[in-house]
Amino acid sequence: MGDERLTVGMAVFLDRDGVINRNIFNPATGAYEAPHRLEDVVLLPGAPEALARLQAAGWTLFLISNQPDHALGKASIETIKAIHAEIAARLAAAGVGFREAYYCYHHPDGAVAGYSGPCVCRKPSPYFLHQARAAHSLDLAACWMVGDRASDIACGQAGGLRTIQMAPDHPALFIAADPPPDHQARDLAEAVDIVLG
Which of 6, 27, 104, 175 is the most exposed place for a label (fewest CB within 10 A)? Predict the structure, then answer.
């Protein structure tokens, strides 16, 4: 049934940091960022339950996230992948799984060879949305993009998805999307209410 429903477009693409797990304050940069250590991984309250509701209603979940910390010299690629595995394991314990996770590890101002400079996949590019459409026969116009950053919304809009901008887990991170999203939500539970509404 999951594959049949997916072909008619019942998919939600989600950003990760600030949507599923907490951003962590980095004293070296004075900014809230993705976790750089396994011990810093904290799921946002209610996130697993909200994602479980989406799955139970027949929606297939995809993760789409910019993770440039290796390119910027803040964490090894192995650590970044281990953090993903930890988040996936915690969600799996709640019965939640992603059909695929799409990560851009690049940064235009990075310092690590092979991960620095322009790329095709960094949001707001809809590159990964198009990959998912081709691989899973998606009707992107019937799908949703949920994120807390303006780049998430711009990505969804470029792919023709309906968009929801969540309030970030720290007010300093908020930048209003322009053009604005279709909807705004206080948290992931409210975003799920909108999708299911």
Answer: 27
